Amino acid sequence: MLEFIATKKYGGSHTPEALDAFIAALIASDSPLPDYQVAAWLMAVCWRDLNFDETAALTLAMAAHGRTCDWSDVGIVVDKHSTGGVGDKTTIALAPLVAALGIPVAKFSGRALGFTGGTLDKLESIPCFTVDLTPSQMRSILTNCGLVIAGQTADMVPADKALYALRDVTVTVDNIALIAASIMSKKIAGGANGIVLDVKYGEGAFMQRYEDARQLAETMVAIGERTGRTVRAVLSSMEQPLGSAVGNALEIAEAIETLQGRGPKDFEELICRLAWEMVQVYQACGGRTSDAPWECCDSSDLTIECIQAFLHTGQALQVFRKWVSLQGGDPQVAERPWDFLATAPVVQPCPALDSGFVTHFATREIGELVRGMGGGRRTKADVLDPAVGLRLLVHLGDAVAAGEPLAEVHAASQEQAAATVAALQSLITIGPERPATLPPLIAEVLTSASLSG
């Protein structure tokens, strides 16, 4: 291990064999590597970085040392991953939409990380919904409704858990090679043939600089190609919260409203585009779409507009209903969400202090604000309050008058509501002029072909 650390410390490159031996030693049950040596290597990587061959080899080693899924008996399976953002409830509406299009979706999701919400936490806002599934349970659910979402089991990519626990406490989280290996090792172990990545950039994303987000996307697409997966990466903006809802139960309700055909415009636009990209990777992997239920589209070629029209038919909502039932929840939540989801005892408007136009959201701070209300964790032991959060009533460029509500605050107490309103007013900037330009929701889509070109 000393030689392994020194190789990277002095700028050398690791062989695939050395990286595989490192991962095997990291998770060895008899005498795992000491934390201080692993931490030293992580810091050396942050200083010297990993080249692409090293990153790909590390990814493969992490995926190989642990349980992997094989869905070949089901057919071609696709997956989606988001790098996280404020109000990002995309999976909850996107996955049923893609499954309704006749494309199987098997996904392992995670918990809240920092100021961003976790898909599993949001799904558990639905009473009795279970995310702890055995492989046989996952296969049964996937076969029955074309969709399953579960938590990562302890024996899947255990090296990632060990590395991330140290990265989190040694300020080594933000290295792009380590991020790419962490994400893609789990996607490869998850068994999907095709993967769509929603890589966020902007103030409310982990990668605030577009250049960093693009580099991460390029790396992950290239790793996918190296490992025989078809991968597309969508670079999407997180300069403002996605949709309107920020908070676990509120986001579930908004995803349901979107499946009912009455969701926020930006959220609907994003899930329809991601669904189209998932169709492309499915077809590229050899998936047959000739029998897919696209009668709502006049054209023989599926378009994003066709997917949007399909969303409004309600067929995706029916898949959601069946999926929730198969994973233990009450399917009636699909029609009457607020009869089943937790509601906050205090709902208070947040009025604008000035008249003008919305020119800026302190998006990251808004995510932190909801986390502080109990919507996220600061320690692993924290218990979430699924009911708290915000429902934003304005977006960038909207005109507002002093006293008009900018948002609804859903709080656990009057004191929390008052403090949240005061904080939120400072996080939404009202200016005298409408912004000359607004950030595009989707900036670019990367594929292996576009990178090689």
Instruction: List the uncertain runs.
Output: none
* Rg computed from alpha carbons, rounded to a whole number of angstroms: 22 Å
Gross geometry: globular
- Give the termini distance in whole angstroms: 40 Å
The residue fraction in helices comes out at: 40-55%
Number of helices: 17
Structural class: alpha/beta
Read across the widest sheet, the strand sequence of neighbours is 1-4-5-13
Reported for the largest beta sheet, the result is: 4 strands, mixed
| H-E string | HHHHEHEHHEHHEHEEHHHHEEHEEEHEEH
Give me the count of strands.
13
Percentage beta strand: 15-25%
What is the averaged pLDDT score?
92
In short:
The chain is α/β, with parallel strands linked by helices and 453 residues long. Helices cover 44% and strands 15% of the residues.
Mind sketching the topology for me?
Blueprint: H1 2-9, H2 16-26, H3 35-48, H4 52-64, E1 78-82, H5 90-100, E2 105-109, H6 119-123, H7 135-145, E3 147-151, H8 158-169, H9 176-189, E4 194-201, H10 210-226, E5 230-237, E6 245-246, H11 248-259, H12 265-284, H13 304-311, H14 315-326, E7 346-351, E8 356-361, H15 363-375, E9 389-392, E10 399-400, E11 405-411, H16 414-427, E12 428-431, E13 442-447, H17 448-452
Parallel strand pairs: 1-4, 2-3, 4-5
Antiparallel strand pairs: 5-13, 6-9, 7-11, 8-10, 8-12, 9-11
